[in-house]
Structure formats: C-alpha cells, structure tokens
C-alpha cells in the first residue's frame, strides 16, 4: 500500500478539491478547508496528515507509524509516516472521517451547495 491510495480515495469524495500548497505539499480540501495533506510533489510521499476525532487523537498518536501532526496537533491532526501502520481499509476510513469532520465545520449554506453539486 502506498500513500497514493489515500490520495485517490480523498480525490473521489464529494466536493473534494486538490492542489499543491507551500510549493510541494499535496492537499485535499472540501469547501476550501484541508482534510488531507501529504508528501512532497513531485516524488514519493514520506508522510501524510489528517484530522481525527478528539477521542481518537491520543490513541492514534501512540501507534507506531503515527505521531501528532506538526503545527496541527492542537486541532487534532495526526501524521502518518508508515502506510503499513494500519490496514488500507482502516486508513481510508480515517481519511473519510477527516473529510466528514472538516465538512461538518463548514457553514450550512456551503454544505448545502456541496450536496447540490453531488
């Protein structure tokens, strides 16, 4: 499994947009808010970060291959440095949950426009 599978999964989510930020980091966003940040483009990813539920933050941060995400840990983001840390299905579920958490923080009007566009 590679980080590319998570990138592809994120790109398929309703209303998701992709771009490069900070000159080299691939970012998936919904409504202009990031839900997955990964690697360095071009070239192989070395890590990715995403938002998690508050009650899962400490649990995931303690697993091998995970750590609190630099600069974003206070917002309950974790960094994944080893894509073999969990099965692919579990990692996809975490990225999808990150999408849901970020989307839930958007205005109701923006959420409705995303629903209409789906």
Labels describing this entry:
118 residues; alpha+beta; Aspartate Aminotransferase, domain 1; six-stranded antiparallel β-sheet; globular; MmcQ/YjbR family DNA-binding protein
Write structural notes for this entry.
Helix content is 37%, strand content 25%. It has 118 residues and is of the alpha+beta class. The protein has a single domain, classed as Aspartate Aminotransferase, domain 1. A 6-stranded antiparallel beta sheet has the order 1-2-3-4-6-5. The protein is globular. The model has no long low-confidence stretch (mean pLDDT 89). GO terms for molecular function: DNA binding. Keywords: DNA-binding.
Quick structural gist:
The protein has 118 residues and is of the alpha+beta class. It is built from 4 helices and 6 strands. The protein has one domain (3-104): Aspartate Aminotransferase, domain 1 (Alpha-Beta Complex).
């Amino acid at each position: 499994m590679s980080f590319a599978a998570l990138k592809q999964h994120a790109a398929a989510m309703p209303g998701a947009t992709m771009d490069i930020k900070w000159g080299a980091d691939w970012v998936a966003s919904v409504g202009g808010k990031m839900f997955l940040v990964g690697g360095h483009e071009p070239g192989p990813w070395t890590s990715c970060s995403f938002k998690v539920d508050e009650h899962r933050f400490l649990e995931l941060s303690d697993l091998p291959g995970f750590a609190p995400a630099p600069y974003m840990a206070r917002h309950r983001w974790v960094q994944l440095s080893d894509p073999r840390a969990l099965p692919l299905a579990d990692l996809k579920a975490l990225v999808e949950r990150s999408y849901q958490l970020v989307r839930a923080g958007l205005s109701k009007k923006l959420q409705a426009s995303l629903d209409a566009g789906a």
